[in-house]
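Q: Here's a chain of 311 amino acids. Please give me its 3D structure as tokens.
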Amino acid sequence: MANHSSTKPDWHILVLLLLPPLLWAGNFIAGRAVSASVPPVALSLIRWGLATLCLLPFALKPFLRDRAHYLTYRWHVLGTAITGVATFNLMVYWGLHTTSATNGIILNSFIPFLVAIFGFLFYRQRLAVYQLLGLLVSLAGVLTVVSRGELQVLLTLAFAPGDVIIFLAMICWALFTLWTKEIPATIDRTGLMLCQVLIALLFLLPLYAWESQVSTIHITDTRTWWILAYIGIFPSVIAFLAYSKAVTLVGSVRASVFIHAMPVFGSLLSSLLLREALHAYQLLGMLTIFTGIWLANKAMHQPVVTPTSRR
């Protein structure tokens, strides 16, 4: 039985694919901005608490309607809640306290490779030649951006304890992506996300009780509250729903490769918000990244037979 994708993804699917890396790039900047004021577990708890308030008005009805399905797919629901919602961002926030933004972006760029490797090892998913080539080309673009176009920058990178933590977070996101694909598309994604967020909050509460004994929250201005509001709404609710829907529509590898666009959007946001100049190496890196994404998605026009689909 073949898995056909005969037409190009239309504009609304491209929006679903590009919106998460745009909003997560903003989350990276926002998370760094409040890291001195709000410790990692508290930041995660505030983030998902705000997300719950945003989700309740329109997610409660499908949440109640689909509750029997959550039990049917309980291990996938529990797994995605713990890895993608609770653990991933908590470990990123934690890791960024002891490593640089550059290292974080480089480690983040390995997510599509982890998705492809785990998909092959555990789900026998095939990786088309164009997908592999696209992953490599877009990774080259990421490295161009973070190294400022200088090989010496990459050769002299020093890795800190936070890098190990962030790499473990990348593994969590790869598992989240693959397990999301295993949850049927017939289950409403807004209700599912509410379920995942509630599980994540239960997971985070005891960690916060421990963290509050050793560190405290220091919010002294309204700017920090606006940043927290952004984190709780845009990269949490909107980006997660868009990413989950994209994984359902185009597959785990094709959706994850768009994560390579994060440094592109990070550079653009820094230019717009922080008035930083755009350099030639950034433009070259952006062009290379989007070339890689285009190559990876050429496979969408080709029929693919996966080992698990043979009868």
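Q: Can you summarize the key feature?
A: The radius of gyration is 19 Å.
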